Amino acid sequence: MKKNGLLICSIFFLLVTQSVNAGGNKNAKGWEAGVARVVITPEESMWMAGYASRNHASEGKLHDLWAKALVLKDADGKRSVLITLDLCAIPKDMSDNIRSQLSSKYQLSKAQTIINCSHTHSGPVIANSLTNLYPLDADQLQKVNSYTQKLIKQIVTLVGDAIKALQPADVFTENGFARFQVNRHTNNEAFLLIQPELKGPNDYAVPVIKITNKSGSIVAIAFGYACHNTVLNGYQWAGDYAGFAQAELESMYPGAVAMFFQGAGADQNPLPRRTVPLAKQYGKELAFAVENVVSKKMNQQPPYLAFSYSEVQLPLNPAATKNELEAIIKDTAVAPFLKNSAANMLNQQNKGKAPIKSYPYPVQAWKIGNQPLFALGGELVIEYAIEIKKLFGLNAFVLGYSNDIMAYIPSVTMLREANDKTSDYAFYDPRNKAAYTYEGELYTQLEYGLPSTWASSIESVILSEVQKMAKKAGVPLTEYK
Fold it and tell me: What's the predicted TM-score (pTM) here?
């Protein structure tokens, strides 16, 4: 009996040891990471995205535009890819096309893929993205469509290149801070230099992901900020402050790829602005904020990935009526691009096409080791980042402008105060000498091709879906302090 007992104990010890060793080997295997980049600067003069006030096509460049991809692979073989683009925006059809090809070729699902736009206003127009804003003739439309198709192929190839570049790596995360973002509702740009104080809300966080190889050399730095890339408004291709920040970091860390992702910066502007030196200044400020994080001890993440994704239906108010659309078209004070948007909407209604009542809005959660990351679509305002951090901790990373930029995503406060002429959340509109909330206005929705304003429930719908996706990805709720 003693021999049998010893034999059983020995077998049990052997099995436990093998199990522990297997787990140890899995953890020892650790992360793999691969990074790649490709120039996406148009090779010919094209119309530029972001401003309806431009009156001719591009003229040269300040620096190249880039698409960059970071692929992570955890100890269990699960992969994710972050794609960053020096572009103003991409629409759902383009994003779906890219992600469908990534699924087919590389088995990367929507949950595993984030496509984020920097929202530079000095990049090219993309097909089916705010095209009503620009006076595009047949030649320009052909250039836009050709560029878009080429770009889709470049992005799919880019991800394949990043997968081929996978190598053993370590992953670190941390938040820094930078303070050049200014809330454009609560601070008047015209009087910025004489204001005694700046008002919020703001989120000055600079989220940073550092990737090193096993010798400790930095191979990639992914970093973000919540602020419009609108320092520049000229006719030269540029990534704006984010482009200068990426170039600065790559000069600081030779051989490393620096990639910028846009946060919830829809109501945040870099102020003052409108000069190249200011774009360089903010770029260096952001790069030094990242360098301050990277050069110190960061949170090393265990080799584990989890992810979730959904498209929740965001409700819209009843569509603008034919009378309302006709009034916009006839109004001599309304800009031509708004008349075009209203005319397109009216044409659809006259053809019997029923206006949509909701929109499929992308909500995504990742867990990189212990680091929570949330990626949401549209031009996301800062209040969403603040509310998400109340739920999941101040160290959470929050991205806007991801996977589909279909419109502004205003807070419930903005929607409620859209017609409040005394609201802090208001621009001054010289058309009718009244205040209005830009992100919540019908005009803004029409620009994006939506038939009406968002229903006031969208904030609760989005935050509820964020919590569902967080739970699915294993991101715990955290008491806000």
Answer: 0.91
